[in-house]
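re: ur msg from earlier - yeah i can do the cytidine-5'-monophosphate complex, just paste it... oh wait u already did. ok heres what im feeding in:
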Amino acid sequence: MPLDPTPVPTELRGMRIALLVAGGIAAYKLVDLASALTQAECQVRVAMTASAARFVGAPTFRGVTGQPVLTGMWASDGAPEPHVFLGDWAQLVLLAPATANVIARVAHGQSDDIVTATLLAARCPVVVAPAMNDAMWSKGAVQDNIATLRQRGMTVVEPEAGHLASGHVGAGRLAGPARLMEAMAEAVRSRYDLAGRRVVVTAGGTREPIDPVRFISNYSSGKMGFALAAAAADRGARVVMVTTASHPAHHGIEVRPVETAEEMLAELRERLQGADLLVMAAAVADFRPAKLADSKIRREETKRLTLDLEPIPDLVATLGGEKESAGVFRVGFAAEGSDLDAKALDKMKRKGLQAIVANDISRKDAGFGSDYNAGVVLFADGTRQEIERMTKREMADRILDLVGPRLPAMR
Ligand code: C5P
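and the outut:
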C-alpha cells in the first residue's frame, strides 16, 4: 500500500540536511523521513554508525536520497575528512534514532566514528531524537547527558510513550515524523531568516557583441551581486545567480552564466517562476550594437568605424509586467554620481520596483570593482536607510535585513 510522505514544512524545502543514523531498531523509520525530505526537494545526505548499518543497509538510504551514504571515517572514494565535508555542507543535522550510547559519546565530545565526528564538525543547528528502551531512557546517566546536549544548544525531541520493541510499554519510542519535521523546521526558522525562500540575483556587466571577438561592456565586477547571493544562501534561501562574471563556488548558489542582456532576460523569465525575490545587481547595458558583424572587423580594411547602437529594453521593468514574475519582490540598483535619493526614487517608480539600492559611484573608496560599497536603500513604502561604507558582504546583509521582513507571505 503506498503511503503518502509526511508533509514537509515550507522552511525545510531545499535545505541541505545531514541525517546521522545510530544503531536502534527505529533506524528503519528514518528511511521514510529521508524519502519525504528528498521528495520536498531537500538535499539529504546520510551518515550511519556501524551498528545502524546492521538495522538498515546503506543502499536503502542511497536509494531514497540519491546521494552517497557515509558508513565510516573514509569515504568510498578515499577522500580524507568526509566528516568535515558533511559538517560544512549541512544547514541542519538530525541525529536519529539517538541511542543511549551515541548520546553519551556526543555529550563527551567523542569523534571516533562518522556520526560523532560529523556532529563535532557541524556549523549548523542540530536536532537530536532519542529512541531506546524505557528503562534506559529513565536512567540518570542518560538524562544527564541529554541535559548536556540541551545546554550546548541542541534541540532534543523527546521520545514518545507507547509500545517498545522490547515488548515493554513506556517512554522511549522515536518521536513521530510530524514532530521531527516540526522540530527541524523550528531549528531552521531560528537560524535562517530566508529558509524556504527562492531568491534570484543578477550580477556583473552584460557584454554586447560588436563582432565575434569584441564587445561593449562596463566596469561592473559582479562582487555586489555575489555578496548578495552568498548572504541570501547563508540565510537559508535557495539562490540562483544569473551572472556574466565568474565567482568563487558557494554552497546554495546555482550559477547560470550569461553574456548579453537578451540572454539575461531569457534566463530570468525561466528562473523567476515561483521566486520570492529578485535582486537586479547586474549592470545591464542600455545600448547594444544594432548589427553584429559576422566576422572580425579588420583594421586593415576599416578606416574609421562608427557603431550604430540601439536601446536595450529595461529588463527589470519588462519583467515587472509579466506573469512569470507576478508576486516577486523586485529590488533594483542605481549607480549614481550625484543626487542619489532623487534619481533613485525616480528609477524605482519608473521601473515599478519595491525597493532600490543607490550607490555613490563618485567615491574613490567604494563601488565598482571594490570590496566596499556605500549608499542608500529606498523602499516604495517610503522607508529610507542610509548605508555607510562597509564591505559588500556586510552591505548585502544590511539590505537583506531590510528586505526579508517585507517579503510577501511564503507560498
Ligand atoms: O537605469 P539604470 O541602468 O541606472 O538602472 C539600474 C537598474 O536597472 C539596475 O537594477 C539594473 O540591473 C536594471 N536595468 C535593467 N535593464 C537595463 C538596464 C538596467 O534591468 N537595460
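cool cool. Residues 261, 280, 282, 284, 286, 312, 314-316, 332-334, 347 surround cytidine-5'-monophosphate (CB under 6 Å). ping me if u need the other ligands too
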